Write the structure tokens for this entry.
Amino acid sequence: MSVAVEDLLRELAPQVLGTLVRRHGAFDQCEDAVQEALLAAAVQWPGEGVPRNPRGWLLTVATRRLTDQWRSDRARRDREAAVALRESLADEEGPGEDRPGDRDDTLTLLFLCCHPALTPSSQVALTLRAVGGLGTAQIARAFLVPEATMAQRISRAKQRIRAAGARFAPPPPDERDERLRAVLQVLYLIFNEGYTASSGPDLQRADLTAEAIRLARAVHGLLPGDGEVTGLLALMLLTDARRPARTGRDGLLVPLTEQDRTRWDAASIAEGTGLITDALTWSPPGPYQVQAAIAAVHAEAARPEDTDWPQILGLYRLLSHLAPNPVVTLNEAVALAMVHGPRAGLDLLRTLDGDERLSEHHRLAAVRAHLLEQAGDTDAARDAYREAARGTTSLPEQRYLEARIARLDGEDHDGNDDANP
């Protein structure tokens, strides 16, 4: 299947599923029917050509699959009659056509996939399948789990939605902001898993970052006046722009301060910077906007030594006020060290000792090792690097941390290395 056909199917999947659920209800059965229609298109379109109305084609095939499914279930004969009536009315407007009443239900579908009854992992899986149009096998490969495990996760998610009595409709006004934050968080989780894989042999999975950006674009297209939606898209673009420079020829991770910035994607930087610069002129700053602003400051520096660290430190302090969490504090400690010296950064890190949210995360040890190395405490830095290497399940990160240990073992620290793990 060509890339163009695959991209078209991913774009159309949420539109077709949204229309089908809005007409007939039964999200789980509609989702299965759409997956069958996508599979049929993937088989037929490369050889026979893309139909004149691909959305209508998918909608017709999925509706037939859904009707066949209900016809085979004698206990749902009354439902079959209702479907037949709806279809007869729809056929008066022409089968398989896009009709004026059909609208883009992508956002409503995202709200449903990110229902609060679901766990974050289930929200991510269901979003990738229902809105992203990915097959179960693709999602399983992306998260390094068996296909059967991912199939069970998706099935349980659909069962939970049904048990919760969730309706295919926008959330009530008093719940909308919270539900939108959940949607943005799920998209950011997908992006982060693609940008820095939490486990396995690869540092990054470009298919996941690309899908997260595509979905963020879709939400931004529907909500262009939401500052945080704009901020998230800008953040993804500015962060993903660094991807070509994040690994060296040997496959090892290259930290931000050592990357060849000529390899950064200039078009993504320009788009992301434009989005966040504009958004901050009309929207009160939110966490995603502030993170995007930080990424933009990094992108503006042609060389690491040109980075405006005082501005970045001020932005991290604002972010700590808007959305306090230990990961923000970790990054603030690095910025603080760049402005006021490594000992100041280490002092801030001590406030995280004993924080249960970081008890099983290697990042605290990695940042501490980096600052200890900057401070010239080689022995303590070596111990912290070893702790971080033991704690990560990402093989590229583990190799990078072990390389730092070998470097400390092989030579005296000369004070000129400012790597930022």
About this structure: Strands lie at 199-200, 393-394. The CA atoms of residues 70 and 80 lie 6 Å apart. The longest helix spans residues 173-195. The mean pLDDT is 85.
